């Protein structure tokens, strides 16, 4: 078994254990009385989100750059939680550690590492995100890395809005592990 397969198995086991340990799950927002803004777009399922505002359309109909916009924020929270779980909590050190994951180059690499695990639907979201024209030029990355980073963020946004949070966490954790292993 290769090192990458061992990491995949380890991450999968950790995610499954975490999911089975969560017996006191909070109520999904769709069940909370009086929470405004929970009307789903036609054909959209009510997936629990962090806040009650729903997207204006189902996730599959949102533009890839809109998915990337929310995906960027969701991934930023995941990265911050990841670096805060480590021992050195000085603000400058946290920032240095976080930039190892949130740069276009790192996101592009992470996408390449998790891409073999993606479903056909997820690959379609990635393709659309990669082909989206943002109209901005990257400052610290080449155009290809920037496009792949946008594709990665689109995938994160899509999984967040479709409520596939276990899948989202699993891919991000797997990506962290593979990226850290890849850098040796």
Question: What would you say this structure looks like, in words?
Answer:
With 184 residues, this protein is mostly helical. It has a domain at 61-184: Orthogonal Bundle (Ribonuclease iii, N-terminal Endonuclease Domain, Chain A), CATH 1.10.1520.10. Helices cover 61% and strands 0% of the residues. The protein contains seven helices and no strands. The chain has helices at residues 3-21, 64-84, 91-102, 104-114, 120-131, 143-161, 165-182. Helix 2 packs across helix 3 (91-102), helix 4 (104-114) packs across helix 7 and helix 5 (120-131) packs across helix 6 (143-161). It is globular.
Q: Which descriptors apply to this entry?
A:
Ribonuclease iii, N-terminal Endonuclease Domain, Chain A; 184 residues; mainly alpha; 7 helices
What is the element layout, followed by pairings?
Blueprint: H1 3-21, H2 64-84, H3 91-102, H4 104-114, H5 120-131, H6 143-161, H7 165-182
Helix pairs in contact: 1-7, 2-3, 2-6, 3-4, 4-6, 4-7, 5-6
What's this, in brief?
With 184 residues, the protein is mostly helical.
Question: Which radius of gyration do the C-alpha atoms yield?
Answer: 17 Å
Give helix % range: 55-70%
* CATH architecture designation of the domain at 61-184: Orthogonal Bundle
The main pleated sheet reads as:
none
Coarse morphology: globular
CATH topology heading of the domain at 61-184: Ribonuclease iii, N-terminal Endonuclease Domain, Chain A
What CATH first level of the domain at 61-184 would be assigned? Mainly Alpha
Derived structural class: mainly alpha
> What's the name of the CATH homologous superfamily of the domain at 61-184?
Ribonuclease III domain
Proportion of beta-strand residues:
under 5%
On the 0 to 100 scale, the average pLDDT is 80
Number of strands: 0
* Model regions low in confidence, pLDDT < 50 over at least 5 residues: 18-44
Distance N terminus to C terminus?
18 Å
Order of helices and strands: HHHHHHH
Helix segment tally: 7
